[in-house]
Amino acid sequence: MPVRLRKFVGTILIIVLVVTYALVATTVASAILGASPWWVHLLYFFFSGLLWILPAMLVIKWMEKPV
């Protein structure tokens, strides 16, 4: 696969990943954390805010892989 096409596909994948992840994380937070204390919200959003980086990092590695 040419480098430009791989970067284009990777960019689309990252955008879809971030949007989907944000919707799922927000839905889970709304459904489960409604009556939880503030510190549970803080921990949830801290970890869920960092968790999307792992799959995005794999996509970026794939995008930068030499031909």
Question: Would you mind describing this structure in some detail?
Answer:
By secondary structure, this protein is mainly α. It has one domain. It is 84% helix and 0% strand. It contains three helices and no strands. Helix 1 packs antiparallel against helix 3. The radius of gyration is 16 Å and the shape is elongated.
SSE layout:
Elements lengths: L2 H30 L5 H14 L1 H12 L3
Features:
mainly alpha, 67 residues
Compact overview of the structure:
This is DUF2842 domain-containing protein. Helices cover 84% and strands 0% of the residues.
What distance lies between the first and last C-alpha atoms, to the nearest angstrom?
8 Å
User: DSSP strand (E) fraction?
Assistant: under 5%
Number of helices: 3
The major pleated sheet works out as: none
Radius of gyration: 16 Å
Give the helix/strand class. mainly alpha
Overall number of structural domains: 1
What ranges have pLDDT less than 50 throughout 5 or more consecutive residues?
A: none
Structure summary, number of beta strands:
0
The proportion of residues forming helix, as a percent range, comes to: over 70%
Mean pLDDT: 92
Indicate the overall shape. Answer: elongated
The H/E string reads HHH
